[in-house]
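Anyone else keep sequences and structure tokens together like this?

Example one:
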Amino acid sequence: MLLLQIDTAFIIQKIILISVILGGSLGVAMYATWAERKVAAVMQDRIGPNRAGPFGLLQPLADGLKLFFKEEIIPNRSTQVIFILGPCLAMLTALMTSAVVPWGPDFKFGEHNVSLQVADINIGMLFVFGAVSVGVYGVMLGGWASNNKFSLLSSIRAASQAISYELAMGLSLIALLMMTGSLSLRTIVEQQHGFWQNGYFSWNIFKQPLGFIIFFVCSLAELNRAPFDLPECESELNMGYHQEYSSMKLGFYLFAEYINLFVSSAILSTLFLGGYNFPGMDAVQHSVSSGLFSLICVGVLISKVVFMILLIMAIRWTLPRFRYDQLMRLGWKSLIPFALVNMVATGAAILWIFNK
């Protein structure tokens, strides 16, 4: 009976956590569209959305209702089952990747230990890579099933771009793995405790600055964000791989992009910016309850995520789009060699430190 009660409490705890993360991801995706337009307005000396609600805060709701009530159109010459499956797969994989992110430290609730991570698996980053790789199939299936040559060309571009930049991203992650000795995101965060340890900064961005730059640039390419938004370049491919989509199927593709933006920023913050760690956290932990401390840590991580999102948005409105040959040259001739050099240098540094 006791075992049953413990299992029931554990299941309820996970259901609540999953619901909060899913709701938060959808909410962030909604208001990331508003933030994107506001950032663009500030950088271009415009006002941005300001009609729907105060400061335009109801604009995402208006856009969502517009998509929801638009006519559902499925082209006659499309492969209908796969045409519907494409955006569903893109949305599903976007939401899956948040399962391994540690949003804060554990805390006590009565007699139960509450974890703010859905699944603490020792191959957390491999799970993220796997989910992101499957997400490309959502784009490929949508472009192919539309039976539109522009959509197909766009999906082929997206697939080749993802393959090219995943290699450099994986190599940059190997250097981080050599330092941490684990692929568990929880372990990586715990090794970045506080801000200063053993006479040096504890966050991985200071230990792996080149790895961070490579991972960040590859993340922009994986997200199809400018200047790597070749799959959606309107001047060449009309709208891109979702040209034939309308209503909520189009909404799923758009939402998946912004959810990926949110989760990628969370993973970047977790791997390189200390996750939920912050300077002086030990003093704060001893002066407040465990629940309040966990809440503060969640706020710290969300602040880092918001900073990364705004940085990525600012880059979109700052840099022009690459040509496709420039995109491939950067991935294969620059980022992969730099990632290999970083990996070799990291291994040499670790070997030298251990042999001292």
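And example two:
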Amino acid sequence: MRIGFFGDIHGRVHKFHHVLQKVMEEYQISVAIQVGDFGISRKTSSSIEALGGFPIPVHFVDGNHEDFRFLWKAMKNGIIKEWEKNNLFYQPRGSTLEVQGVKMGFFGGALHIGRPQKIIKGNLITTDELNRAVYEFSQFSPEILVTHSCPAGIGVGMKGLDIHHWGVVNHILMAGFDPGPKTDCGETKHAMLWNQMTQRPKLWVYGHFHEQRVAEVDETKFVSLPCLEHYHEHVIWDTEKKGLLIKS
């Protein structure tokens, strides 16, 4: 059996629905994992319902471009249970799930480069959320970890683009946050998670940077997924062979 992983979709649910059907036909995936910047909002929620939901279960983490006010209200009022009728499942920060015999951990959130950080119930990852994730993952030992961004400064090697320089300066550095080195950037909270995990995952999948890239640190393979543009930009995990198929 196979699991499909997909990058940022930024609210383009009709296109994602089309891509999902194509990948299902070609690779027979039965579950989809989306790595954040889903673009969840009242509008996208209504669009999914109008489509009749997704054909297979779609599990997603939050990125830095979600309607967080809507997301937190949905969690508080139990609206996310209604999403499940449409095969959409939100995975909160620090949550775990066993998918087709594969243990997976989820940890959303990331810094903004184009706007001020939303600190309270927003894109910013809190120390409490980090500590909860460290505890949950230590108990669960996920084989695959799904985040929106990657750890900063541990050797994954994501490079900050020159066009984002002033956004990083204005909204991250001058606001007192640390994106890590320019040639190895990401989330310092993810680096803390990495350093505190008692058992590290075999595979760490993330998006945020809108490019496809593979790197290895110690014995963990880090895979960055591009922004959703073409149906072949995804990765597939074969649960029986425990192997990764990367399409680009």
